[in-house]
């Protein structure tokens, strides 16, 4: 649940109350509006749920993002709630900032602070022009086998930047509607997520009702994992397919409105995006 919530809670992009019928009118893409000089504030929330016998496990992630014509900044809080703290303790504060471009977002700085009461590790990552810096406190025992190279890191984004950019980037005509691949670096682990479309399906979630693209996700553990772990084509604890449904929105976004995964310990974990609010920032 921790790994899945950490991954999937980083992709909550659903407009509360949106239906498929609302996507008929085409608008300029969010990135195009921002490039034209209209800064945007975005507020997100995603909820996760699963069960162990009769005991519910739940989680919540909140996101606050400010997008300006040249730069962006975002903060996120990801935490298990209720009885979940007894079984799965996950409490993390995440922040990222970087550059806004017509084709997407690019990381400059990323900070994650784990508050799980164990190592409470803080990771500071900074992208330089032709290199990167990473400081972890306490330090990682090792940086995996193999270790991510400079070139690989510079070709990737931090987790929340990669996933938010993925949702906002307009899909080219004729391209796979599921987009990707997502290239993600968290300071140690470099992961590529490859998505394959399985057609339009009817989806009903807290935030969306209508047609959405069903995307199956294949995970490529490129670097930064323990020896032998990179050969496992799954997220930790996930024993079955990881599926994501993307709602095509009139502003050019492809929004994850529902995510499901089968886990080897707690069965099906379901994540539903429950809120996205776009607010123009008045200067």
Key structural traits:
globular, 283 residues
Uncertain regions: pLDDT < 50 for 5+ in a row?
1-16, 83-87
- How many beta-strand elements? 14
Determine the mean pLDDT: 82
Shape: globular
Largest pleated sheet:
14 strands, mixed
Radius of gyration: 18 Å
Helix percent reads 10-25%
Order of helices and strands: HEHEEEHEEEEHHEEEEEE
SS field, number of helical segments: 5
Distance between the termini: 41 Å
Count of discrete structural domains: 1
Structural class determined from secondary elements: mainly beta
Strand content: over 45%
* Oligomeric state of this protein: single chain
Q: What does the model show?
A:
By secondary structure, this protein is mainly β. It is built from five helices and 14 strands. It is globular. The protein starts with a helix and ends with a strand.
Break the fold down into its secondary structure elements and pairings:
Blueprint (H helix, E strand, L loop, with lengths): L1 H7 L9 E2 L10 H6 L4 E13 L2 E13 L3 E11 L2 H4 L3 E11 L2 E11 L7 E6 L4 E6 L12 H5 L4 H10 L13 E4 L4 E15 L3 E16 L14 E11 L5 E10 L3 E14 L3
Parallel strand pairs: 1-11
Antiparallel strand pairs: 2-3, 2-14, 3-4, 4-5, 5-6, 6-7, 7-8, 9-10, 10-11, 11-12, 12-13, 13-14
